[in-house]
Amino acid sequence: MALVGVLVSLVGLGAVYLLRYELARLGLGLATYTHDAGAARQLTVPMRDGALLQTQVYLPKGGPRHPTVLIRNPYNIANVFGFVCGVFVRYGYACVHQDVRGRMGSEGEWTPLAHEREDGLDTLAWLVEQPFQDGNIALWGMSYLAAVQWAVADRLPPQVKTMVPMVFATDAYPVHYGGGMYRHEIFTAWAALMPGDSMRLDHGDEYSAAVAHRPHAEVDEKFFGRRLPWYRSWITSPNRADAAWQNPALVAFREAPRQTAVPVLMFGGWYDFFLPGQLEDFRQLATRSESRLVIGPWHHLQRSEVDQPGDIGIGGQWRQTLNWLDHHLRGAPLEGPTGVVQTYVYGEGRWRVRSAFPPPDAESRRWFLTDLARAPHCAGGTLSATTTATASVSYRYDPDDPVPAHGGATVLAFAFRTFDAVAPGPRAIDGICRRPDVLTFRSAPLAEPVRLAGSAIVDLLVSSTAPDTAFSAKLMEVRPDGTTIHVREAIRAVSYREGDGEGPPKPYLPGSKVGLALTLSAIEWTFPPGSRIRLDVSSSSFPVYHAHPNRFGPWAEQTGADVATNTVHSGSRLTLPVARD
Ligand code: BEZ
Question: How far apart are CA 264 and CA 164, in angstroms?
C-alpha cells in the first residue's frame, strides 16, 4: 500500500511539474500563452576587463528574432528566474538572464552596485549584436534587479524601449538610516545573507546575534564569517553628507531617473521599505508623462501577507507588465493611463489614480497628545483637538530591553528562511501598551472617515537624562472590537533633531527641552467611522532600528549602553494630511 501511495505521489508531482506553466498562468489570471518554449542555452559574456558573466538565453519556438527581456541578478535563485523567463518565452519574448559579477557562476568580485554600470553597459552592447533579438529590448526586475536597470538608465542603446524596475529606489542613504537610526531588519539582514558569492539563508542565528552585539562595527567578521568593507562603510556612515553616500557612482545613480529617456513601469508596495524613495524617483522621472507607478498593498516581495480586498496581487502586476511590454516592444495598444500614480487605499479596498501622490491639496488635521499622566497605561492618554495645561510624562528607556517591533514597512529579514524576523505589513499589535516604556494616546471614535493620504508628522517636545537618545512614534488604527493595526512608524535620535545627517549630529544638553519632528512615510489609509487613531511614543523599535545606546557618537562604535529617563512634554502633536479628493 505504502509503495502505491509513493507512486501516486510521484505521478502527481510529475504532472504538476509538467503543467507548472499552465498552473501558474491560471493562478495569475493571465491570457492563454501564445508561443511554445524553444531552445535554452547557457553561455558566458565577456566584460571589458575580461571577466566572464554566466548568462542563460531562453527563446520561444519559431521565428529567428524576438522582442527581448533582460534580467541581471545577484541571487542564487536561477530556478525562479528561469521560470520567469519561461513565462516571457511563452508570450513570444526572448529572455536573457545573467548572474551579476562575482555571484554564483560569474567571475570577479562582488561589491553591491560597484560594477553594475560597466557590466550592464557591456551586456547591452553584447545583446544588441545578438541575432535572436529584434531591436526591441526591455529591462525587467525587482529590488537589486531593478538597481541594475537604473545603473545604466542614462546610457541605454536605442534598442532598449522600456524598463520595469520594481520595489526599488535610487537614493541609498534614507533606506539605510531614518533619523540617524540604522535599519537592521533591512541591511544587517541583507549583509548576513550576502557575505559570499551566494545567499546564506542559514544565517538567521548570526543575524540575531549581530543586531544585539556591541560594537556593531565588528559583526561582519564575528558573525558573518568575513570582513565586508561595504557593510562597514554603511554602518560607520550615519550622515547623508558622509563620503559613503556621496561617491560619484552613487550621486550618478540618484540622478538616473532624471536622465533616462525611456518610459518606465514601476511597482511599489506600501509596506516596502523602498517606497518613499520610489515616490521621489517617480516625481523626478524625465519620462514621467509616459510612465506609471502602481503602489499596492504589498511588502518587498510584492505580495500581501494580510488579506486585502481588491488587491490585484502578483497576477495583476504580471497582467499590467505583459500589456506594457506588448505595447512598448510590439506596438500593441496600451491599457490604462500614463503619467499617473495608481494607489491602493487601505480601508476602502479600492484604487485611485492621480497625476501625483501625495495629493498636493490634502488638508492638515492636527491632534495634540494630552492626558499625559495616563499615557503609560493601556487606557492611554488622549489625542485631542486642543492642548491642555503644561505637563509631561517620563519613562525609563533601557537599550538592553528595547520595545520589540511588530509589522511595518522597514523589514526584509522575513524573506529569509531561518531568520527570526519582524512580520511585514499592517499587522495586529497586541499588548505592547502594557510595557512601561510605551506611551499610548488614542483619539475618540471617529464620527466620519479620515483618509490619510501622504506623510503623517509627529512633532514631539522631549527631554532626556542622556547626552543622546531616540524617540519613536507608531501610528495605528483601533477597530471597534479593539483590534489594533500597525499603519506607520518612525524614529529619530535627538542628535538628529535638525535633519537627516545633512550636517554632523548636534550635541544635546541633558535635561533641556527640544523639538523633534518624526515624518512617517506616505500611505493612503482610510480610518473608518467608529475606529480610533492611536499613536504610541517610545524610544525603540527593535530590531527594525538599532537600539539607541543613550550615548553621543557613532552608533556602530559604541561598546556599551546606558539607561535613560526620557520625557515627552505637552504641546506634542500628530498631524495627518487628510485627502479631499
Ligand atoms: C533586494 O534585492 O531585495 C535588496 C537589495 C538591496 C537591499 C535590500 C534588498
Answer: 6
> How far, in Å, is the centroid of ligand 1 from the Cα of 147?
9
Q: Return left, alpha or beta for 229; rule: phi > 0 is left, psi -120 to 50 is alpha, else beta.
A: alpha
Q: Is 143 near ligand 1, meaning CB less than 6 Å away?
A: yes
Topology of domain 363-578 in CATH is Jelly Rolls (2.60.120)
Fold of 27-165: Rossmann fold (3.40.50)
Ligand 1 neighbourhood includes 234 CB (under 6 angstroms) = no
Nearest-CA neighbor of 423 among 406, 400, 444?
A: 406
User: CATH 3.40.50.1820 in the chain, residues?
Assistant: 27-165
Other residues' Cβ atoms within 10 Å of the Cβ of residue 199: 20
Amino acid letter for position 164 = V
Ligand 1 proximity of 172 Cβ (cutoff 6 Å) = no
Q: Which ligand 1 atom minimizes the distance to the CA of 75?
A: 2
Q: For the chain, where do the domains classified as CATH 2.60.120.260 start and end?
A: 363-578
pLDDT in tens, 173-225: 999 999 999 999 999 999 999 998 889 999 999 999 999 999 999 999 999 99
Query: Do 308 and 346 contact (CB within 8 A), yes or no?
Result: yes
